[in-house]
Amino acid sequence: MSVKNKFSHLGLSIVFYLVFSNILATIVMFIGMFVYAFFATFKASQVALASGIAINPQIMQSAIIEFRNNATLTNLLTMLAGYFIAIPCTILVLNSPRFRDIPALTGFKFSTPYEKSMQRSLKLSELLSFILFMFPMGIIGSLIGSGLASVLSVLSGVTMDDYLSEMLVNMPLPAVLLLSVILAPIFEEILFRYAVIGYSRRYGEWNAIIISALIFGLIHTNIFQFFYAFFLGIMLGYVYIYTRKLIYTIIMHVTFNFFGAFVPILINPNLSEVTTGNIIYSSIQYIVAFVGLILLIRFVRKGNILRTSDSAPIQENISKDALLNPGMIILFIVCIALTAFIMVFA
Fold first, then answer.
1. Which of 68, 155, 187, 244 could bond to 83 as cystine, CB 3.0-4.6 Å?
2. How many CB atoms lie within 10 A of CB 317?
3. How far apart are CA 100 and CA 216, in angstroms?
């Protein structure tokens, strides 16, 4: 199979995920809204009959509005549908028979017995080092994304807001913990590390790491998140290739989201306000990031970086054919269009 065909299918599979998850979210929202309105109307009618008063004809419309304004419930329904239905379906599409490198890897299987034999465990000190490496990448990427969003806001005259932060702020802490710290890291690692890297790594480890990181950044459809998601995707992909174990990347992802999304809201639910707690916590983050950056530089200078297997078809870090093909180009267009639409109209 040619490199272009292989990675074109990868791009189209992720487009399928975007389209299918959004259609699924719409269907789930409609069903949830109907059920919510039905029970609200039923409850109101029972109260009205017991009291001998007329039923308010606006009760269903009020229930629909109440459902739409319930950010916790709507986000929970749509994200759960995406995680438990859209991601498994996407993995099956990605691993369709025509595009398998190894016919025996059916269904949700992406690792051969040989690759499983290459699994290695990390020492606690190694895992902590990799976790520390993420923080400078996250801060640098976040600064780039925020700066670019500010420039685009000035040039376009349209204020661009970080809708993800706004979404998290509007949800109670338990929901933020469940969705952002627990479910998102688990299912995103399954899709973007286990499936995407598992699908493409036999064509070249570094090519798979960078392509998966690029897709991981694009799929967030948010300028504020793209760069730090891309940088983190490289680190998570590297650790997954290095260990062949998903548990480590899940731990790293959970840790990053906990300290990056949950703790700031825990300290100050209104992220737009500057408080003493925010300043102290941000200072600690920058200190940790500085330490992580020094350790990362030392790690690279010691020559610890993984090398692409000699037998891999793609020896360069990023292949032009893996990047410039119909499926990946369509994915870029769709993600950029969604990003522009969400940033302007969300």
1. 187
2. 12
3. 22
